Amino acid sequence: MAAAGLGPGEAAAAAHALSLPAEAFGNDPRVELAWAMKAHQHAQVYFNLISSVDPKFLTLTKADDRIYGEFRKTFKELKIDVLDPEDLKSEAAKEKWRPFCLSFEGVVEDFNYGTLLRLDCSKDYTEENTIFATRIQFFAIEIARNREGCNSVVYGGAKEAASG
Prior knowledge:
The chain contains 7 helices and 2 strands; from the N terminus they run αααααββαα. By secondary structure, the chain is mainly alpha-helical.
């Protein structure tokens, strides 16, 4: 990403702009770049975290238990190790996700902010392995991946690489 193109003043202005409602912008490329940089940084931090700490022991939010319980109650059969984009983006999926996501308004800060989510949890964030999701979708799926052992492959691979 071209982060070097932003000076401190521009970065501060972009950060402020991100706190304004989306309707205030249209398709401002500076805002899109600032969002993309922030989302990319979040993705890198999260992947580094699950690479260095056993994901089964991670707590991502104060509401992890509630998020996981509601997620598995609502999405019992959702395959989380390798996501099908249709399970997040189809009209039928959106109808199911909408009430789930809205139930966390006021519970999870910035629950509806956009973030990046890996499709195949055994792989890193790449253009082919990444989908745009809301923050609560990210938390729900990643908490489930952590608790159900799906992200252990990332931790195990990193541990193996470090010792070999």
